[in-house]
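The records we work with from here on pair a chain with its fold. These numbers are not coordinates but entries in a learned vocabulary of local backbone shapes. To see the layout at work, look at the sequence and tokens printed below.

. . .
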Amino acid sequence: MGNARFGRDSGRHAEAFRGTLALALVLLCGVAGCKQRTQPPASPAAQAAVSDDGDLELPDILKLPDYEQPEPNGYVYFERLGKKLQRDREIRDLRDILPGSSGRAPTDADIEAMASVVEANAENLDELGPILDMEWLYPREATPWTLFPELAISRQFVRLLCSKAILEANEGRPDDAMPDLLQALRLGVKLPRGGTLIHWLCGMGCELMAFKELKPLVASQQLPESALQSVLASLDGLERERIPLREVIAFDYQRQGPGSLKLGAEKFWELLSQGRPFFLPLDSPKADKAADEFIRRYLPSLQAWDAAIAKLSTYPYYQIRDNIPDKPKGLPEGEAWVLAPVTANALYHEAALQCQWRAVRIMIHLELLRQKQGGYPGGLGQLKGMPAEELQDPFSGQSLVYRVRDEGYVLYSTGPDGADNGGKRGKGASRRDPGTDLILWPLRED
């Protein structure tokens, strides 16, 4: 992309300030805003950000390839399709009855509810495949009124696809169920392309939802060798489509720019206390002044922070565990720097997601070997078709932990502390309790 510089394009401070408020709101209430460009633009409100002596040059780690806006852009068609979804409330309710999320087998009533809502959206599910075959890059411009619509739509479609797969598996058609789960996984892979860190986190949630239903199907011993080999080939293609976290951070920084700066709590609430709306008019002098002053002080610190996290993301987690900073340097105490932990936590989430991708591959190879020799192997070293790096736990640098038990097996990661705690399952949503492990299979206690 050449050397991106900050310091020109005057007169758009208030627009960036609106982006600042929008991102503050997404982290508090699930609301965000970003702008669509053919390439991520230099930050519009940064012209006075550094000094009178020169511009703030973008470091190499935050530079991007010369992406061109695709035509057609899958994002646009995906949002249009989302507007056609039927029975929205019932789709949201699916999250409470999907086996991977609820932790229980679906009841007859659950199956009936799944079938009803899937049937109502059959045409929409048919249209989704061609849209996923399109190139996706840069969501369209979001405003306070559109609020990243593709994020909510993606979760709805993944729930529908997972429900459709469960119905097919229950009808004895596991070969039909697997393509639906792979399509759900692909949707999660597509979502972050050119978006923001929020898009990446939402895409990760879609991938995890798909994995929760995909892994039981792999372990069900219902899929023949040909189907398992086809899944491996599909996973290869999907992994090639995945966008590295370094690039996500670069997209987020360049597209959001000063809008990625979370206004300090005092300035933010000062505006609200004076009766100002969350999204100030574009011609607001107060917005101009506040954005200029805030960005002038803190943009270099933000850029150094994003560059540092982007660089750390190129290393395995076990190599950087003790070097992840808590917050950007040079920021005042008492400010509400909510983006700092979000960005830093992305390093953990990326490693945890790598564990899921590797676990599915391992589970498929274990099932292939079981079909050949009548039982599971005693160790992962017997999986001759898998290179050592695909067996590695990104949290420990060693192989993922595998143990045969009864007629099945347990597969887990040490989790962020890098210590094997004997397969002790963490509690709560984060599964990051000290002294516990990240259990990859089985999904729950027997």
DSSP finds 16 helices and five strands in the chain.
